[in-house]
């Protein structure tokens, strides 16, 4: 008794969800009895709790003749309907389908209860001798051979039960069961009526309940314990928990006080995962003097596993508790645990249970192997699944359809198409053929690979082969098409599903809503959401999350808040990432009232404290509210996150709220003398100054206290970024050195910034060494731009060998060299005048990609220019044009400027006129280059004509052009025009520079009027 009571102490699973769900409310544990108060407690709880268990999928291969067709089995009796095989509905996340194995796992969950129901003949019920003779005494090893009389009576028993069952199920909706039973067409025993209730209940629980109530009203056959257990099992399978509780409560104690009745009622609760209710009934059995049997404990285990996620080592603990109660776990116990592990993809726990099973000499059956293959497949261990499949055959078991589907799922999950085809072929050869689960698995595999044409082809094959697609099939197709933005095809599949008479589930709607939201079709997503609600389907967490996120992204904050309130009312809450996005959106819309509502829900629904809420508000950029929550933390005397304080202060400073920042700093200083220090104040002050672009003040404070202690990483990062923006590269380098000397590990972002700074300072070797150090410590900068900066810096210093080594490093690490890296290398070659090397890189780009750009061509031309091979420019341009390149304006200007610097007036004029003829208009820079050239070569008329053309085109000559004209007239000693040009400079409001005055001095000296310089 004490040992079994210990099992009752197993706590229900603790959920981290912050939702106030109507379906997952945990009832308080209490000692249960059949007095009025406890009856009210159980009844009221049941009335409040509603089952949302998905409709079970009927699997046509539950009978032996279907599962092993090659063994030529024949069914011993005809069932009124196929055995149901429940398939676990796939996870809500991304509407991901897990096929193949759920048929095995789901069905086994109820076997512990069904065994108890079937054992009513021999465990605890007083069957008369006639019944024992008719049914035969059960044997575990061989079939009992009955006499001819017993065989006739058994046949008469089945005929009687089947006759009444057919009559009752053949009634019209307006007819009553009493119309059949009152006629007393056949003589029935109490056992016969039990089977009538059971057989009728397989097709209609309402009619079965009518039979039960008729027996009560007529009081002809007082319902005994077996009848009560039977009707409870029927109602439990039909998810009619409230009716089952009512019947159980009103049953007389003499009838209901048996282990089997309690097991049946526990089974009703266990189907819906009501672990606490099962615990109460087990405790009530102890109070009534009943000793729970193995079925009781199996049912309790099943309820616990259905009530929530498994905790570490839970399965072994449950097995130990069963043994401590004086009972040994059986095959049903082990299979129930392994099936639960399979549902949760918990391979470690499943292996522990399997090993425990073997160590206690409990032989695994086919169900065990199927469940283990399933869990290995779910966890991506297809090799282990295949090993178990081979072990299964070696141990004398014949694989059934579930086995093959589980193995198929294992390889399909890994995307192993060849192996999937091989298994399908073996299935067909063994006589199974492909069923709905097989097709669903293959469709899901192709859908996840984005091969939607093959998925649709398999779907068409499925329908043409006579298999009927179910809701899972359609949901998989809709989900995969939606993820690939093929919403027209997804909508078509939805229409086919509706035309086939299959009702969409919440996951079907959620998949379609996700697809519309991803495609940016807000109206279609809203219509589908409204359609789901109108059809009576309650949205799940995914549907709410997608709709809420979409409305927020479109700025529909009012709609988002209405949806949020509805979401909370239905027991769901957003995750923290969505809460962060909500707060950011509401903050930008200045909806402070709604922000207060969200903060309240975070406290009450999320059970978050002020510190956690403050951090979330900071991420959501609601800094004023974050400051209020941070003040609450400080007033409570709790330790607060210093980074949160610095983030708030940084936001205040960047937005110009310096007074708010100072007020918050003073508040912290006054109320937290215990943990507040000068260091934190200094850190905050430096960061505020950096955010406010008061770099000098920040540097002064840093220098005053820098040697006394180590700053936080936020301070160093703020200073380095601010110095980099102000181009104070030496200061940034010094701060970085201080940071490393103090043992503060720089972030990836800071290492990248310092690398660029070293390159700009002309120290590429130092930058290169830093990158090597960072990568040696396992931190990849992750951006090729830093390597490009190295190449450019090496090129400017004409260290091309180092630049080449950086390119080789890029190719080795990333597998491909990008266009920017190639362009930087060609530029490095150009600066050194290595045209052949630059051309080799250009040819590599033409051959392997990426294609060259204008910068590539300009760098290639620059290599010829630096090498003094101007005459070859025309050859290069002709080659480029033959390759299909169009010469850009920048390339023409580059060539013109090169000839201008060489003093080749003829080529410059030719290029200029050709450019004008091609439709390229001159620029200010072009006029500046040409006039400068004409001035140096004393081409007076051409220079004056170019100046006039420039002014007619609307350009105003700048000081550089006027200086060129001054020099021109001074060179030809036309001093009057020189003075006139100077007057034009003054009239234009331009301020003469040193070049202007030097030219004037030369002019006056040559004109022998030096005294006029001082006038």
- Distance from N terminus to C terminus (CA atoms, Å) equals 122 Å
Q: Please estimate the helix content.
A: 55-70%
Global Rg: 42 Å
CATH superfamily of the domain at 910-1015: Tetratricopeptide repeat domain
Q: Which band does the percent of strand residues land in?
A: under 5%
3D architecture notes:
Keywords: Repeat. PPR repeats lie at residues 258-292, 293-329, 330-364, 365-399, 400-434, 435-469, 470-504, 505-539, 540-574, 712-746, 818-852, 923-957, 958-992. It holds the Pfam family PPR_2. The longest helix has 22 residues, at 148-169. The chain is mostly helical. Among the domains are: 127-223, no CATH class; 910-1015, Serine Threonine Protein Phosphatase 5, Tetratricopeptide repeat, CATH 1.25.40.10.
Quick take:
The chain is mostly helical and 1015 residues long.
What's the topology here?
Layout (H helix, E strand, L loop, with lengths): L1 H7 L27 H13 L15 H4 L34 H7 L2 H8 L10 H7 L12 H22 L8 H4 L8 H12 L3 H14 L6 H13 L3 H10 L2 H4 L2 H13 L3 H13 L6 H14 L6 H11 L6 H13 L3 H13 L6 H13 L3 H13 L6 H13 L3 H13 L6 H13 L3 H13 L6 H13 L3 H13 L6 H13 L3 H13 L6 H13 L3 H13 L6 H13 L3 H13 L5 H10 L3 H13 L6 H13 L3 H14 L6 H14 L3 H11 L7 H13 L3 H13 L6 H13 L3 H13 L8 H12 L3 H15 L4 H14 L2 H14 L5 H13 L5 H11 L6 H13 L3 H13 L6 H13 L3 H13 L6 H13 L3 H13 L6 H13 L9
Helix pairs in contact: 1-17, 2-12, 4-18, 4-20, 5-16, 7-9, 9-10, 9-11, 10-11, 11-12, 11-14, 14-15, 14-16, 15-16, 16-18, 18-19, 18-20, 19-20, 20-21, 20-22, 21-22, 22-23, 22-24, 24-25, 24-26, 25-26, 26-27, 26-28, 28-29, 28-30, 29-30, 30-31, 30-32, 32-33, 34-35, 35-36, 35-37, 36-37, 36-38, 38-39, ...
Protein name: Putative pentatricopeptide repeat-containing protein, chloroplastic-like
InterPro entries: PPR_rpt, TPR-like_helical_dom_sf
Keywords: Repeat
């Amino acid at each position: 008794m004490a040992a079994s009571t210990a099992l009752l102490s197993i706590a229900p699973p603790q959920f981290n969800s912050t939702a106030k769900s109507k379906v997952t409310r945990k009832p308080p544990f209490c000692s249960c009895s059949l007095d009025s108060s406890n009856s009210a407690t159980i009844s009221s709880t049941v009335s409040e709790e509603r089952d949302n268990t998905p409709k079970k999928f009927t699997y046509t291969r539950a009978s032996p003749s279907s599962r092993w067709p090659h063994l030529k089995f024949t069914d011993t009796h005809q069932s009124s309907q196929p055995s149901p095989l429940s398939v676990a509905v796939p996870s809500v996340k991304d509407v991901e389908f897990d096929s193949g194995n759920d048929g095995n796992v789901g069905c086994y969950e109820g076997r512990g209860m069904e065994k108890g129901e079937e054992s009513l003949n021999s465990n605890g019920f007083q069957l008369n001798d006639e019944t024992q003779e008719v049914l035969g005494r059960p044997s575990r090893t061989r079939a009992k051979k009955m006499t001819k009389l017993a065989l006739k009576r058994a046949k008469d028993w089945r005929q009687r039960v089947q006759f009444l069952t057919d009559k009752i199920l053949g009634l019209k909706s307006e007819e009553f069961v009493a119309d059949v039973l009152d006629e007393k067409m056949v003589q029935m025993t109490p056992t016969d009526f039990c089977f009538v209730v059971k057989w009728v209940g397989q097709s209609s629980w309402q009619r079965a309940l009518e039979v039960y109530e008729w027996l009560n009203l007529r009081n002809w056959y007082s319902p005994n314990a077996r009848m009560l257990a039977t009707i409870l099992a029927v109602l439990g399978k039909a998810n009619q928990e409230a009716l089952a509780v009512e019947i159980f409560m009103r049953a007389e104690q003499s009838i209901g006080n048996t282990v089997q009745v309690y097991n049946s009622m526990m089974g009703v609760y266990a189907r819906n995962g009501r672990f606490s209710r099962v615990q109460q009934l087990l405790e009530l059995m102890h109070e009534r003097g009943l000793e729970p049997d193995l079925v009781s404990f199996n049912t309790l285990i099943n309820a616990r596993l259905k009530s929530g996620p498994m905790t570490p080592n839970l399965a072994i603990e449950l097995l130990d508790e069963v043994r401590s109660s004086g009972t040994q776990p059986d095959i049903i116990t082990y299979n129930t645990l392994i099936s639960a592990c399979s549902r949760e993809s918990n391979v470690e726990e499943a292996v522990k249970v399997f090993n425990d099973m073997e160590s206690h000499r409990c032989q695994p059956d086919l169900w065990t192997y199927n469940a283990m293959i399933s869990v290995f497949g779910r966890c991506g261990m297809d090799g282990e699944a295949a090993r178990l499949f081979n072990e299964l055959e070696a141990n004398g078991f014949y694989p059934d359809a579930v086995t093959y589907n589980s193995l198929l799922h294992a390889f399909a999950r890994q995307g192993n198409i060849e192996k999937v085809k091989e298994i399908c072929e073996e299935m067909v050869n063994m006589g199974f053929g492909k069923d709905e689960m097989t097709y669903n698995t293959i469709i899901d595999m192709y859908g996840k690979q984005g091969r939607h044409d093959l998925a649709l082809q398999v779907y068409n094959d499925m329908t043409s082969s006579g298999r009927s697609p179910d809701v899972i099939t359609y949901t998989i197709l809709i989900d995969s098409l939606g993820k690939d933005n093929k919403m027209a095809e997804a909508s078509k599949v939805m229409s086919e599903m509706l035309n086939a008479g299959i009702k969409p589930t919440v996951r079907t709607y959620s998949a379609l809503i996700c697809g519309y939201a991803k495609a940016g079709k807000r109206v279609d997503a809203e219509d589908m959401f409204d359609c789901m609600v109108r059809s009576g389907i309650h949205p799940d967490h995914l549907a709410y999350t997608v709709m809420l996120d979409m409305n927020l992204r479109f700025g529909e904050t009012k709609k988002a808040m209405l949806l949020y309130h509805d979401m909370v009312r239905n027991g769901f809450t957003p995750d923290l990432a969505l809460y962060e996005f909500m707060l950011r959106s509401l903050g930008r819309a200045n909806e402070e009232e709604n922000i207060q509502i969200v903060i309240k829900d975070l406290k009450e629904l999320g059970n978050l404290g002020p510190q956690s809420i403050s951090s979330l508000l900071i991420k959501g950029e609601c800094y004023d509210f974050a400051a209020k929550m941070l003040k609450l933390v400080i007033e409570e005397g709790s330790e607060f996150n210093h980074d949160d304080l610095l983030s708030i202060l940084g936001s205040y400073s960047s937005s110009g709220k310096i007074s708010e920042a100072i007020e918050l700093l003073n508040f912290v200083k006054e109320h937290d003398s215990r943990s507040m220090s000068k260091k934190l104040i200094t850190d905050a002050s430096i960061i505020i100054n950096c955010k406010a672009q008061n770099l000098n003040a920040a540097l002064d404070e840093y220098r005053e206290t820098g040697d006394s202690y180590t700053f936080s990483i936020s301070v160093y990062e703020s200073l380095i970024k601010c110095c980099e923006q102000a181009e104070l590269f030496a200061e940034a380098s010094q701060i970085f050195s201080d940071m490393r000397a103090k043992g503060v590990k720089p972030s990836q972002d800071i290492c990248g910034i310092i690398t660029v700074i070293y390159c700009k300072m002309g120290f590429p070797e130092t930058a290169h060494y830093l990158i090597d150090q960072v990568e040696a410590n396992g931190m990849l900068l992750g951006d090729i731009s830093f390597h490009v900066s190295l190449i450019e810096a090496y090129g400017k210093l004409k260290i091309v060998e180092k630049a080449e080594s950086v390119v080789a490093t890029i190719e080795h690490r990333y597998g491909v060299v990008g266009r920017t890296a190639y362009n930087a290398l060609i530029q490095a070659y150009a600066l050194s005048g290595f045209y052949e090397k630059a051309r080799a890189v250009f040819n590599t780009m033409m051959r392997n990609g990426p294609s060259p750009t204008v910068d590539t061509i300009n760098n290639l031309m620059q290599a010829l220019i630096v090498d003094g091979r101007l005459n070859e420019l025309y050859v290069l341009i002709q080659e480029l044009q033959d390759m299909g390149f169009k010469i850009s304006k920048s390339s023409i200007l580059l060539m013109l400027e090169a000839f201008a610097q060489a003093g080749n007036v003829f080529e410059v004029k030719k290029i200029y006129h050709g450019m004008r003829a091609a439709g390229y208009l001159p620029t200010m820079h072009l006029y500046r280059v040409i006039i400068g050239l004409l001035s140096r070569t004393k081409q007076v008329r051409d220079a004056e004509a170019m100046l006039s053309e420039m002014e007619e085109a609307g350009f105003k000559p700048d000081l550089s052009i006027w200086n060129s004209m001054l020099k021109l007239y001074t060179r030809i000693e036309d001093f009057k025009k020189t003075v006139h040009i100077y007057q034009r400079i003054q009239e234009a409001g331009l301020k003469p520079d040193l070049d202007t005055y030097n030219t004037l001095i030369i002019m006056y000296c040559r004109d022998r009027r030096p005294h006029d310089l001082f006038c």
